[in-house]
Amino acid sequence: MTPLLEATALDLAYGPVAVCRDLSFQVMAGEAVALIGANGAGKTTTLRAVAGLLAPRAGTLRFAGQTIDRLPSHARLGLGIALVPEGRRVFPFLTVRENLEMGGFRHRHQRRHVARLIERGFAWFPRLRERAGQRAGTLSGGEQQMLALARAMMSEPRLLCLDEPSLGLAPIVVQDIFRTIAAINRDGTSILLVEQNAHYAFATAVRGYVLRGGSIVAAGPTAALRSDERVRAAYLGGSVGASGGI
Ligand SMILES: Nc1ncnc2c1ncn2[C@@H]1O[C@H](COP(=O)(O)OP(=O)(O)OP(=O)(O)O)[C@@H](O)[C@H]1O
Ligand SMILES: [Mg+2]
User: Would the CB of 105 count as within 6 Å of ligand 1?
Assistant: First the structure.
């Protein structure tokens, strides 16, 4: 089976600053894959390359059998790659509903379809419905994360890339968000998840890659990675248990 996303020998850099070296990883259709590693390991940089926000210095990216290296981010979105960026980045001066409409831009000529997709988002997160007319900048951090996730799903992606959705949020909100991420995956959307919270990363993903210093140092089923010393080191700085039952 051809992978949905296939990264081969990617080198990633910001100008003269080399960040990731020789990264190869895959996401199969329907699969949820975690990318884990400590602060500065290169996780966000890798997601940026997948989404088309950073051009690889070397290597190739293929999506659904097509080379996408040279496609800009909007073209990748059109093919079905959506990113929920680190720090959420909702449009603060637009309302919740307007943010969702922006996310559904590719369906803008199908008003009824857009309305259905907005309803789907509201069904995941009823709080967004209650705040539909409120400016996104006035939402709590958790509500902004819900909105960022619902907005990304408005494009009906085949691959949803998530950059630390739990960051800075209370456990009860994180639970709510991960329940929805799991439901989205069950409904057939593939997931590439960057997450510092080991508990949620391993509960959500079936397979994982461990990044350290810009290279993949371990890979495999999350069930096996769970007990891997390199994972503990990358994630927890050596201490076990701090992030809730790894
Ligand atoms: N725009 C940039 N210009 C130069 N260097 C950068 C830039 N963005 C990130 N870096 C560097 O690249 C390395 C990897 O950063 P990246 O943001 O990908 O890490 P990360 O794994 O997402 O970390 P975190 O868990 O803190 O989000 C870091 O050393 C960082 O300083
Ligand atoms: Mg990051």
Answer: no
Determine the distance separating the centroid of ligand 1 and the alpha carbon of 58, expressed in angstroms: 18
Answer whether residue 128 is part of any domain: no
- Can you give the pTM of this predicted structure? 0.93
Residue 28 sits in which domain range?
5-90+157-236
DSSP state, residue 95: B
- Ligand minimally distant from the alpha carbon of residue 17: 1
Residue identifier of the C-alpha nearest atom 16 of ligand 1: 42
Distance 45 CA to ligand 1 centre (A): 6
CA dist., res. 123 & res. 110, Å (int): 20
What separation in Å is there between the alpha carbon of 39 and the centre of ligand 2? 7
pLDDT tens sequence across 110-148: 889 999 999 999 999 999 999 999 999 999 999 999 999
H/E stretch holding 128 reads helix 126-130
Q: DSSP string covering 148-178, please?
A: HHHHHHTT--SEEEEE-TTTT--HHHHHHHH
Q: Would 242 be classed as within a structural domain?
A: no
